[in-house]
Amino acid sequence: MPGTSETAYWEQDGMYLTATAGATAITLGTVVEIGSTDGYVVTASSASTKPLGVAIAGYRASRTATDNAVAAGGLVTVATRGVVNLAVANGTVTRGEPVITYGTAGGIATGTTNNVTTFLGFALTTGTQTVKVKLMRG
């Protein structure tokens, strides 16, 4: 599972930016998209056509092992390029395959590169739960 000490969300330097979380909390390690209000970011919906990147850091109130969400209105760091670990939302993602946003919880699935609005990057590992992805959004 991304976000544990064994599997960090963010693995290598790349490009990132800071954004404000929208009306609901954002779980770290999920794909985020540009929301409909004031340019805030929200968890990406199924087949999002406006994914921005992956939420990798932000202020969390309790810092407990299970607290991995940034509250609504909080600042969240979003990776747009680099290597990240992401949860697979559907099926198996195979190394080398393009990945896209999928599901309502900011997960990923195998996709195609012919739609740049849903394309996130390429899988670097194979898995049914978590895969390493080279982000190519920024």
What is this entry, summarized?
The protein has 138 residues and is mainly beta. It is built from no helices and eleven strands. A hairpin with a 4-residue loop joins β8 and β9.
Give a description of the structure.
It is a single chain. The chain has 138 residues and is mainly beta. The protein has no helices and eleven strands. The strands form two sheets. Strands 1, 3, 4, 5, 7, 8, 9, 10 and 11 form a nine-stranded antiparallel β-sheet that branches. A hairpin with a 4-residue loop joins strand 8 and strand 9. It is globular.
The end-to-end distance, rounded to whole angstroms, is: 25 Å
Helix/strand/pairing class, anyone? Answer: mainly beta
Mean pLDDT: 84
Low-confidence stretches: none
Question: What's the shape?
Answer: globular
Order of helices and strands: EEEEEEEEEEE
**What share of residues is helical?**
under 10%
Number of strands: 11
Strand content: 35-45%
* Number of helical segments with 4 or more residues: 0
Give a short account of the largest sheet.
9 strands, antiparallel
Calculate Rg over CA atoms. Answer: 13 Å
